[in-house]
Amino acid sequence: MSVKLDKINQSILLSLQKNARLPIAVIAEDAGISTSPCQKRIKQLESEGMIVNYEASINLEKICTSVTFLTEFTLLEHNAYSFRKFEDAINKEPTLIECYQVSGGYDYFARFVCVDVDDYKAITDRLLVKAPIKSIQSNCMLSKVNRYSGYPLKYLLDNGS
User: Fold this and answer.
1) What global pTM score does this model have?
2) Spatial distance between the Cα atoms of 136 and 40, rounded to a whole number of angstroms
3) Which of 23, 38, 45, 71 is 20 to 30 A removed from 54 (C-alpha atoms)?
C-alpha cells in the first residue's frame, strides 16, 4: 500500500524533521489527529521509505577540534569503470561526510571533516593513488553561515509557490 502524502502526513514529516524526539502526542496535535492514527501513519511513512532514519544533530565544536573541507573532484575519464573506482575509494574514507556526483565543471562534490590539514592531505594522497582523479579543488570551511535544519517540504510540495 502506498502512503498518500496528504497535509497530515506532511505535518508529521515536518514535525519529525524539526525534532525526531517530539512526543507522539505533540506530533499528533500539530497534525490535527489523535495519537493512535499518528503512530500508524509514522509506521507507514517508515515502511514506504519516506522516513529513512532518525539522527541526532551534534555540535562538533563542543566535542573536539576539526577542520571541514569542501572538495571538488574531476576524474581522468568519464565512464562507468572510473566512476565506480572513485566511489569505491572515497566511500572507504572515514572522514567523508557526504559525496555527490554532479554536473558542471567537475564530477563529484564531497565534504570531509578532518582532525587537521595533514589528515586531509593524507586522504587526498590516498585517493589519488586509488582512484582515476584528474584534479582536486579543496576549500577549507571558515565558518558555518547556515545550518541544515531539514528539507523545505511545504515549499517543494507546493511546487515552489
Assistant:
1) 0.83
2) 47
3) 71
